[in-house]
Design brief:
Largest sheet: none
Number of domains: 1
Distance between the termini: 7 Å
Number of strands: 0
Low-confidence stretches: none
Shape: elongated
Strand content: under 5%
Number of helices: 7
Amino acid sequence: MSNMLSKEVRNYWVDKVRNKFTDRTNDIETENHNTITAISDAKYPAFEKSLGLAKLVKAFKVAEVDLQTFKDSKERVERNKEHKLTEVRNEFIKALERWKRTRKWEADIPSDKDDNVKEFMSYLKGVCFDEAQKHFYNSKEGNKMQAVKLQRERAMDILHSDGPKEELLKALARVCEVVKIPMSVPTEALKISAK
């Protein structure tokens, strides 16, 4: 018997490690979701203001409410209100597009044909949450995620290195243990298969 991991055994461990690390990552994200949401909710007013969008948000909301109030009015009034909303919305979208490029937001801005201010507010809250999440996981409080990412890389390096099966799998178990991922390594079975 070879003292190296077979391709099938290596693939098994690669899949197992990926699944374990994905589960641990999801557990940490779930554990920290409320904290990140609280941070995002607390930061949102200042976030909106720091982007220089507070006046545009207010104008956008006012324009939308104003339009709804006069929707049943004469055609002329309705056209004027739609025009005002379109101008404010377009200016708002242009500002969002600039911020999206500057801050490298991945989420897509709602359609420029969307007259619903709620869609845009939902978008802003979403990107605020994303930024709060990035900030959190780069802070001292978010170090669990940093540790999991580092140990995942180490585990994958171990699985892609050569060496005796028993030593590789023991090293893998130690790496997983650092981030509290239970990983049972059948050391007795490995000794038997090596004979």
